[in-house]
Amino acid sequence: MTGSAQQVVVDRLRAAGCVFAEDEAALLIEAASGSELEALVARRVGGEPLEYVLGWAGFCGLRISVEAGVFVPRRRTEFLVEQALELAAPEAIVVDLCCGTAAVGAALLAARPGIELHVADIDPVAIRCARRNVEPEGHVHEGDLYEPLPASLRGRVDVLVVNAPYVPTDAIALMPPEARLYEAHSALDGGADGLDIQRRVAVEAPEWLAPGGHLLIETSVQQAPQTVEAFERAGLVARTAHSDEVEGTVVIGRR
Q1: In Å, how far from its chain's centre is CA 133?
Q2: What pTM did the predictor assign?
Q3: For residues 134 and 132, what is the distance between their CA atoms, to the nearest angstrom?
């Protein structure tokens, strides 16, 4: 593509409000050309998230397969991966619960190829993406929270990572359009105070964790004290970790 033609794409994206128009144009041009490129640009100009248009999202240096409607991995969640890696031995049993596309599990597997990875989610579309992202090395289970996990994992999980929905119901309307209009509300809505699913995860975690095993849940700075309280009520020893760089907050509990 000529420089002038590429600039036309950049200008269209910028006019549509894309802050990183040059970077997005380069990715779209890499993905297609001709009429296919025009279709991709039109979708992006129309407001569709770039990740859905491309079919993948960048996360921890990986290209994570995504489909329309699934939760798009956020950069802040890379901090959850970092914290989990500090606790995961080379052959640990790791579970990625509420996995979505299994971006967290895929990143952990890439960094620790010897782990036994299980990922689970209730959304069939997310599960389809998760299979592409972690199989055959990882095991994918469809169902509500712990329900689909093999019973043989009870009391044996070394690291349980969770990025459950934690946006308060009333706050979804305040989210950027790319999230509230395109991502499934079930992937965002954490109930009245955003912590409904986190509490459900915490209360059952001790049954699944190995002695000394860890539960890690992404949350917000404002919600972290309540997440810690949920961990402690479940009998876990809890602490909070935060990254100013990516604005990521993780509560970590040890059995």
Answers
A1: 12
A2: 0.95
A3: 6
The pLDDT-based confidence of 1 (bands split at 50, 70, 90) is low
For the chain, the average pLDDT equals: 96
First to last CA, the chain: 57
Q: Is 90 exceeded by the pLDDT of residue 35?
A: no
Domains of the chain: 3-65 (no CATH), 75-254 (3.40.50.150)
Question: pLDDT band at 5, cuts 50/70/90?
Answer: confident
Tokens of 7: 């600039």
Read off the pLDDT of residues 145-169 as tens digits, 9 standing for 90 and up.
Answer: 999 999 999 999 999 999 999 999 9
Among 103, 40, 107, 109, which residue's Cα sits nearest to residue 71?
103
Q: State CA 21 to chain mean position distance.
A: 24
As a whole number of angstroms, the distance between CA 95 and CA 204 comes to 14
CA distances from 122 to 112, 149, 157, 206 (A): 25, 12, 20, 21
Distance CA 205, CA 156 (A): 11
Kindly tell me if the per-residue pLDDT of 3 is higher than 80.
no
Note the pLDDT tens digit of each residue in 111-151. 999 999 999 999 999 999 999 999 999 999 999 999 999 99
CA distances from 159 to 2, 69, 92, 221 (A): 50, 28, 7, 22
Which of 89, 59, 87 is closest to 241 using CA atoms?
A: 87
Closest to 100 (Cα-Cα) out of 160, 196, 150, 165? 165
Length of the chain as a residue count: 255
At a CB cut-off of 8 Å and minimum separation 6, what does 216 contact? Answer: 80, 83, 84, 87, 159, 160, 161, 162, 250, 251, 252, 253
